[in-house]
Design goal:
By secondary structure, this protein is of the alpha/beta class. The chain has one domain: 3-Layer(aba) Sandwich (Rossmann fold). A nine-stranded mixed sheet has the order 1-4-3-2-5-6-9-7-8. The longest helix is centred in the first third of the chain and has 22 residues. The protein is globular.
Protein backbone atom coordinates (compact mmCIF):
# COMPACT_ATOMS: atom_id res chain seq x y z
CA UNK A 1 0.00 0.00 0.00
CA UNK A 2 1.38 3.37 -1.01
CA UNK A 3 0.96 6.14 1.53
CA UNK A 4 2.12 9.73 1.59
CA UNK A 5 2.39 12.60 4.03
CA UNK A 6 -0.17 15.32 3.53
CA UNK A 7 -1.96 18.02 5.47
CA UNK A 8 -5.20 16.54 6.83
CA UNK A 9 -7.97 17.66 4.46
CA UNK A 10 -10.64 19.99 5.75
CA UNK A 11 -13.31 18.18 3.70
CA UNK A 12 -13.24 15.09 5.90
CA UNK A 13 -15.06 14.09 9.05
CA UNK A 14 -12.69 11.94 11.10
CA UNK A 15 -15.48 10.83 13.42
CA UNK A 16 -17.17 9.39 10.31
CA UNK A 17 -13.93 7.78 9.14
CA UNK A 18 -13.49 6.27 12.59
CA UNK A 19 -16.85 4.52 12.37
CA UNK A 20 -15.44 2.36 9.58
CA UNK A 21 -11.81 2.00 10.63
CA UNK A 22 -12.92 0.62 14.00
CA UNK A 23 -14.49 -2.24 12.07
CA UNK A 24 -11.57 -2.76 9.67
CA UNK A 25 -11.09 -6.39 10.71
CA UNK A 26 -14.62 -7.17 9.53
CA UNK A 27 -14.47 -5.86 5.95
CA UNK A 28 -14.05 -9.32 4.44
CA UNK A 29 -16.30 -11.20 6.84
CA UNK A 30 -19.35 -11.72 4.64
CA UNK A 31 -21.51 -12.26 7.72
CA UNK A 32 -19.99 -9.39 9.73
CA UNK A 33 -20.59 -5.67 10.01
CA UNK A 34 -20.37 -5.17 6.24
CA UNK A 35 -22.65 -8.04 5.25
CA UNK A 36 -25.09 -5.70 3.51
CA UNK A 37 -22.28 -4.29 1.32
CA UNK A 38 -21.31 -7.82 0.27
CA UNK A 39 -24.98 -8.60 -0.43
CA UNK A 40 -25.53 -5.55 -2.68
CA UNK A 41 -22.14 -5.64 -4.36
CA UNK A 42 -23.14 -7.91 -7.29
CA UNK A 43 -26.08 -5.62 -8.04
CA UNK A 44 -24.08 -2.42 -8.06
CA UNK A 45 -21.14 -4.03 -9.88
CA UNK A 46 -23.40 -5.22 -12.69
CA UNK A 47 -25.15 -1.83 -12.90
CA UNK A 48 -21.80 -0.02 -13.07
CA UNK A 49 -20.62 -2.32 -15.86
CA UNK A 50 -23.91 -1.83 -17.69
CA UNK A 51 -23.33 1.94 -17.66
CA UNK A 52 -19.76 1.47 -18.89
CA UNK A 53 -20.89 -0.78 -21.74
CA UNK A 54 -23.78 1.53 -22.66
CA UNK A 55 -21.55 4.58 -22.94
CA UNK A 56 -18.06 3.29 -23.73
CA UNK A 57 -19.14 0.26 -25.74
CA UNK A 58 -17.04 -2.31 -23.87
CA UNK A 59 -17.08 -3.76 -20.32
CA UNK A 60 -14.70 -3.08 -17.43
CA UNK A 61 -12.00 -5.34 -18.86
CA UNK A 62 -8.91 -3.24 -19.54
CA UNK A 63 -10.39 -0.01 -18.17
CA UNK A 64 -8.48 2.19 -15.74
CA UNK A 65 -10.82 2.59 -12.76
CA UNK A 66 -10.74 4.70 -9.60
CA UNK A 67 -12.88 3.80 -6.57
CA UNK A 68 -13.21 6.80 -4.24
CA UNK A 69 -13.88 6.01 -0.57
CA UNK A 70 -13.13 2.36 -1.24
CA UNK A 71 -13.19 1.24 2.40
CA UNK A 72 -11.95 -2.33 2.61
CA UNK A 73 -12.05 -2.74 -1.16
CA UNK A 74 -15.22 -4.78 -1.70
CA UNK A 75 -16.28 -3.03 -4.92
CA UNK A 76 -12.71 -2.29 -6.02
CA UNK A 77 -11.81 -5.97 -5.76
CA UNK A 78 -14.83 -7.09 -7.78
CA UNK A 79 -14.02 -4.59 -10.56
CA UNK A 80 -10.44 -5.86 -10.66
CA UNK A 81 -11.74 -9.43 -10.94
CA UNK A 82 -13.61 -8.29 -14.06
CA UNK A 83 -10.34 -7.22 -15.61
CA UNK A 84 -10.09 -3.54 -14.69
CA UNK A 85 -6.89 -1.86 -13.50
CA UNK A 86 -8.21 -0.43 -10.23
CA UNK A 87 -6.96 2.14 -7.73
CA UNK A 88 -8.91 2.47 -4.49
CA UNK A 89 -8.48 5.58 -2.32
CA UNK A 90 -9.66 6.14 1.23
CA UNK A 91 -8.65 8.17 4.29
CA UNK A 92 -8.91 5.23 6.67
CA UNK A 93 -5.50 3.55 6.74
CA UNK A 94 -6.85 0.53 8.61
CA UNK A 95 -9.43 0.04 5.86
CA UNK A 96 -6.70 0.12 3.21
CA UNK A 97 -4.57 -2.35 5.13
CA UNK A 98 -7.49 -4.79 5.14
CA UNK A 99 -8.04 -4.15 1.43
CA UNK A 100 -4.37 -4.64 0.54
CA UNK A 101 -4.05 -7.85 2.56
CA UNK A 102 -7.12 -9.28 0.85
CA UNK A 103 -5.81 -8.28 -2.59
CA UNK A 104 -2.52 -10.03 -1.87
CA UNK A 105 -4.23 -13.16 -0.55
CA UNK A 106 -6.43 -13.42 -3.63
CA UNK A 107 -3.66 -12.79 -6.16
CA UNK A 108 -5.02 -9.42 -7.27
CA UNK A 109 -2.17 -7.18 -6.12
CA UNK A 110 -0.95 -6.52 -9.68
CA UNK A 111 -4.20 -4.96 -10.89
CA UNK A 112 -5.60 -3.67 -7.58
CA UNK A 113 -3.77 -0.89 -5.73
CA UNK A 114 -4.71 1.34 -2.80
CA UNK A 115 -3.65 4.79 -1.59
CA UNK A 116 -4.40 6.83 1.49
CA UNK A 117 -4.91 10.19 -0.19
CA UNK A 118 -7.73 12.76 -0.43
CA UNK A 119 -9.44 12.54 -3.81
CA UNK A 120 -8.95 16.30 -4.26
CA UNK A 121 -5.19 15.79 -3.94
CA UNK A 122 -5.29 12.89 -6.38
CA UNK A 123 -7.21 15.02 -8.87
CA UNK A 124 -4.38 17.55 -8.88
CA UNK A 125 -1.89 14.74 -9.54
CA UNK A 126 -3.75 12.61 -12.07
CA UNK A 127 -6.16 14.84 -13.95
CA UNK A 128 -7.94 13.08 -16.80
CA UNK A 129 -6.34 9.67 -16.20
CA UNK A 130 -9.33 7.34 -15.59
CA UNK A 131 -11.96 5.71 -17.81
CA UNK A 132 -14.31 5.06 -14.89
CA UNK A 133 -14.67 6.65 -11.43
CA UNK A 134 -16.94 5.26 -8.73
CA UNK A 135 -17.83 6.79 -5.35
CA UNK A 136 -20.23 4.62 -3.40
CA UNK A 137 -21.85 5.29 -0.01
CA UNK A 138 -19.33 8.04 0.78
CA UNK A 139 -20.87 11.39 -0.13
CA UNK A 140 -23.25 11.31 2.84
CA UNK A 141 -20.27 11.02 5.19
CA UNK A 142 -18.30 14.16 4.23
CA UNK A 143 -18.84 17.81 5.25
CA UNK A 144 -19.10 19.05 1.65
CA UNK A 145 -19.77 16.50 -1.12
CA UNK A 146 -19.56 18.98 -4.03
CA UNK A 147 -15.72 19.12 -4.13
CA UNK A 148 -15.65 15.31 -4.12
CA UNK A 149 -17.92 15.27 -7.18
CA UNK A 150 -15.74 17.91 -8.84
CA UNK A 151 -12.61 15.83 -8.18
CA UNK A 152 -14.30 12.78 -9.73
CA UNK A 153 -15.00 14.85 -12.84
CA UNK A 154 -11.43 16.13 -13.01
CA UNK A 155 -9.96 12.63 -12.70
CA UNK A 156 -11.94 11.24 -15.63
CA UNK A 157 -10.81 11.19 -19.21
CA UNK A 158 -13.15 13.02 -21.62
CA UNK A 159 -15.98 10.61 -22.37
CA UNK A 160 -15.43 8.74 -19.10
CA UNK A 161 -18.16 7.37 -16.84
CA UNK A 162 -18.74 8.24 -13.18
CA UNK A 163 -21.10 6.32 -10.89
CA UNK A 164 -22.12 7.83 -7.55
CA UNK A 165 -24.34 6.33 -4.87
CA UNK A 166 -25.84 7.87 -1.75
CA UNK A 167 -29.10 8.08 0.22
CA UNK A 168 -32.07 10.33 -0.49
CA UNK A 169 -33.22 12.75 2.22
CA UNK A 170 -36.93 12.53 3.03
CA UNK A 171 -39.16 11.02 5.77
CA UNK A 172 -39.13 7.61 4.07
CA UNK A 173 -35.33 7.46 4.02
CA UNK A 174 -35.23 8.32 7.73
CA UNK A 175 -37.64 5.48 8.42
CA UNK A 176 -35.91 2.93 6.21
CA UNK A 177 -32.20 3.87 6.29
CA UNK A 178 -31.93 4.83 9.96
CA UNK A 179 -34.83 3.42 11.99
CA UNK A 180 -35.19 0.28 9.89
CA UNK A 181 -31.62 -0.48 8.81
CA UNK A 182 -29.84 0.58 12.01
CA UNK A 183 -32.30 -0.15 14.82
CA UNK A 184 -34.81 -2.74 13.61
CA UNK A 185 -33.08 -4.91 11.00
CA UNK A 186 -29.54 -4.08 12.19
CA UNK A 187 -28.19 -4.19 8.64
CA UNK A 188 -25.58 -1.61 9.72
CA UNK A 189 -24.35 -0.39 13.09
CA UNK A 190 -26.33 2.22 15.02
CA UNK A 191 -25.08 5.72 14.30
CA UNK A 192 -23.70 4.84 10.88
CA UNK A 193 -25.74 7.56 9.18
CA UNK A 194 -26.81 11.15 9.83
CA UNK A 195 -30.11 11.89 8.08
CA UNK A 196 -29.22 15.57 7.72
CA UNK A 197 -26.26 14.60 5.50
CA UNK A 198 -28.40 12.59 3.09
CA UNK A 199 -28.52 14.01 -0.45
CA UNK A 200 -31.57 14.27 -2.71
CA UNK A 201 -31.21 13.24 -6.36
CA UNK A 202 -31.85 16.85 -7.37
CA UNK A 203 -28.99 18.03 -5.14
CA UNK A 204 -26.61 15.38 -6.45
CA UNK A 205 -27.59 16.12 -10.03
CA UNK A 206 -26.96 19.83 -9.42
CA UNK A 207 -23.49 19.10 -8.00
CA UNK A 208 -22.63 16.89 -10.95
CA UNK A 209 -23.90 19.30 -13.60
CA UNK A 210 -22.06 22.11 -11.81
CA UNK A 211 -18.87 20.05 -12.04
CA UNK A 212 -19.36 19.62 -15.79
CA UNK A 213 -21.06 16.22 -16.02
CA UNK A 214 -24.01 15.14 -18.13
CA UNK A 215 -26.43 12.74 -16.38
CA UNK A 216 -26.67 9.32 -18.01
CA UNK A 217 -28.88 7.09 -15.82
CA UNK A 218 -30.30 6.58 -12.32
CA UNK A 219 -31.66 3.65 -10.32
CA UNK A 220 -32.87 2.88 -6.81
CA UNK A 221 -31.69 0.08 -4.52
CA UNK A 222 -34.42 -1.76 -2.63
CA UNK A 223 -34.63 -4.39 0.13
CA UNK A 224 -37.35 -6.83 1.14
CA UNK A 225 -36.71 -7.73 4.82
CA UNK A 226 -38.91 -10.83 4.80
CA UNK A 227 -37.21 -12.51 1.85
CA UNK A 228 -33.92 -10.65 2.48
CA UNK A 229 -33.75 -9.84 -1.21
CA UNK A 230 -32.08 -6.76 -2.73
CA UNK A 231 -32.96 -5.46 -6.19
CA UNK A 232 -32.63 -2.38 -8.40
CA UNK A 233 -35.44 -0.35 -9.94
CA UNK A 234 -35.42 3.08 -11.56
CA UNK A 235 -39.09 3.51 -10.68
CA UNK A 236 -38.26 4.41 -7.07
CA UNK A 237 -35.23 6.30 -5.74
CA UNK A 238 -36.76 7.24 -2.38
CA UNK A 239 -33.96 5.76 -0.25
CA UNK A 240 -30.70 4.32 -1.63
CA UNK A 241 -29.90 5.23 -5.21
CA UNK A 242 -27.13 5.34 -7.81
CA UNK A 243 -26.59 7.89 -10.55
CA UNK A 244 -24.33 7.54 -13.59
CA UNK A 245 -22.75 10.56 -15.25
CA UNK A 246 -20.62 11.13 -18.33
CA UNK A 247 -17.80 13.61 -18.79
CA UNK A 248 -18.41 15.25 -22.18
CA UNK A 249 -15.82 14.66 -24.91
Amino acid sequence: MQTQTYTPPTNADYDEIGKFTRLADEWWDKNGAFKSLHDINPLRLNWIEDQVVAHLGTPLMGKRVLDVGCGGGILAHSMAVRGADVLGVDLGEENLQAASIHAAKTGMADTLKFRCVPVETLAAEQKGQYDVVTCMEMLEHVPDPAPIVQACFDLLKPGGVCVLSTINRNPKSYLFAIVGAEYVLRLVDKGTHDWHKFITPAELDSMAVGAGFSRFDMTGLHYQPITKRFWLSNRNVDVNYMMAFVKPE
